[in-house]
Specification:
four-stranded mixed beta sheet, 2 helices, about 40% strand
């Protein structure tokens, strides 16, 4: 079970508003905060996301193929999270929309993709009725 995912940052205070806005839309906020680390989520809740300056003091870099997926309530929230990300300094990596075909229950993977100011890739997704 995942407790939280940590992403590296070179500008903790500059990137924090991006995650504050995303967390607020998802109904949560900061659960832990130190000079070099901030975590968003609920203690003993679903998995959270954290930003940290690297412990070794070296420059934070993004992982090639690494992505954090944020589970949205519905398609509308997928759209809102994408808009919030872009409004808070993020960059577009894929507009909201269905990905692939519907499953045996008529649901489709519906997602948007974006990066934070450090280049960490995230997506917002839900399973939604096709059409």
């Amino acid at each position: 079970m995942i407790g939280y995912v940590t992403l590296g940052t070179n500008d903790l205070q500059g990137n924090a508003p991006f995650y504050d806005a995303i967390a607020r839309e998802m109904g949560t906020g900061r659960m832990m905060e130190f000079d070099s680390f901030i975590a968003w989520g609920e203690p003993d809740g679903a998995a959270g996301v954290a930003l940290t300056k690297p412990y070794d003091g070296k420059t934070a870099t993004v992982g090639n193929g690494t992505m954090v997926a944020l589970q949205a309530k519905d398609k509308e929230q997928v759209h809102r999270l994408h808009e919030i990300a872009l409004a808070n300094g993020g960059t577009d990596e894929g507009a909201p929309g269905p990905r692939g075909d519907a499953d045996e229950n008529g649901l489709v993977f519906y997602a948007s993709y974006f990066r934070d100011r450090d280049g960490n890739k995230l997506n917002a997704f839900c399973m939604a009725p096709h059409g």
